[in-house]
Amino acid sequence: MESTEPKESKDKKENKENKESKSKEKKNVKNSNSEKKDKERKSISELKGPNESIFLNKKRKLLEGQLKYKANSFNNNNLNTSLKNPIHTLNYHKGRVLCLSILNDGRLISSSFDKSIIIYNKTTYQPDFIINEHKGPVNYIIQLNSGILATCSGDKTIKLFNIKENNYNIIQTLNDHTNWINKIIEIENKYLISCSSDKSIIFYLKDNLKYKKNSQLSTNGNCYCISQIKENEICYSEYGNSEKICFYDIKDRKIKSSVSNISNSGCGPFIIISKDLLFISGENKISIINIIYYELIREIEVPNSGYINGACMLNKNILFTGDNKGTIRQWKIEEDNLLLISKKEKAHNYSITNLLNIGNGHIASGSFDNSIKIW
């Protein structure tokens, strides 16, 4: 028997049921999406540590335009001057001081535009001996874990010296670069790595006490600075037509990431200021990069400083910087920020090229005025 219910009433009932059904489905979808988001948040909370979660929130805010880079507001009148007068001034170089380093026995060693390398007495800071083996400015010097002294120069060579007491002899000369070699580093007592203005990085593999070219990486600009930041990872600068910081995996031999929105930051030092933060200096500014996520997280303006060429850590909380105006600044490291706490104007007459922690609460500074000062 057919239903006696009017057709109009029947249609209204079906429409009502359909609306209720759709409403229920939307509610279920909404609840499902909400549960999914809760699970995602929980997953991030469980998989990421507290610091990483904080960084993710900062990154999200940055993308939303809610987090802005802010320059520190410097009130120079309230700064103290903890650096008084230098306790030693060394005037033995006849050209710009390009590098300062510490030997394994604690002695200070310096190199210069005058092509010389000087090793100083630990007590008197008089020269113990002078090395004149390069034909160009000596840009960088390090003592390797094996005790060998490695130097690189504008003469396009790397020289390895065996130093015993006050004698030295050249073990090896490496001449694979075609332009100035700007810096060399050692990794795992195995690799010697050099960067150059010929737009290349060369990896040398240790074989007994000598090194052999193992591989070469081409860069898109002059490479002035290179540093190890993790066990198998280095960062390096590309400067010129391309200005960026690249992160390279030595084991996999590939670029992991790069940060390209940093201008005029290719010449200064790279310093790890905490387990996940990298300090990079530039012109009138300091940049801080998170090396877990490879993100620029802060820029700090340093007005009227010019290039900040020198930097060193005194301890895990204190950083010193030196600039083109001859000023040394002392900074306190606070989480992902730097707080300026003191400065010494006219510490040198010209640009400060290097700062070095030499131990016992002292730092050394090298300058284009040809001098080295101990503070």
How would you describe the overall organization of this protein?
The chain is mostly beta strands and 375 residues long. The chain has two domains: 14-63; 76-374, YVTN repeat-like/Quinoprotein amine dehydrogenase (Methylamine Dehydrogenase, Chain H), CATH 2.130.10.10. It is 15% helix and 45% strand. The chain contains two helices and 28 strands. The protein has helices at residues 7-47, 50-63, and strands spanning 88-90, 97-102, 108-112, 117-120, 127-131, 138-143, 149-153, 158-164, 167-174, 181-187, 191-196, 200-207, 210-218, 226-230, 233-238, 244-249, 254-259, 270-274, 277-281, 285-290, 295-301, 308-313, 318-323, 328-334, 337-344, 352-359, 362-367, 372-374. A four-stranded antiparallel beta sheet has the order 1-28-27-26, with no helix packed on it. Strands 2-3-4-5 form a four-stranded antiparallel beta sheet, with no helix packed on it. Strands 6-7-8-9 form a four-stranded antiparallel beta sheet, with no helix packed on it. The longest helix has 41 residues, at 7-47. It is globular, with a radius of gyration of 29 Å. 33% of the residues are buried. Residues 1-8, 36-50 and 61-81 have low confidence and may be disordered.
